Amino acid sequence: MGAHTGNRLSALFQSRTMMAFMRYAPASVSAAAMHGLGWIYHFFNRAERLAIQRNVADFARPLGIRSAFELSGLARRGMYEHYFEKMLVASKPRSYIERYVRKRAVFHHEEILKEALARGKGVVMVTAHWGAIELLPVLLRLRGYPVSVILETSTPLLASTLERLAAGSDVELIIESNGARVLQSALSALSRGRILMTQCDEVDTWRRRKGRTIQLFGRDLYFDHAIDFIANRTDAAVVGLFCRRQASRRYRFTAEPIALSGKNADAAVKSLVLWERYVREAPEQWYQWKKWAEMLPAAS
Question: Which of these, 73, 132, 123, lies nearest to 100 by C-alpha position?
Answer without folding.
Answer: 132
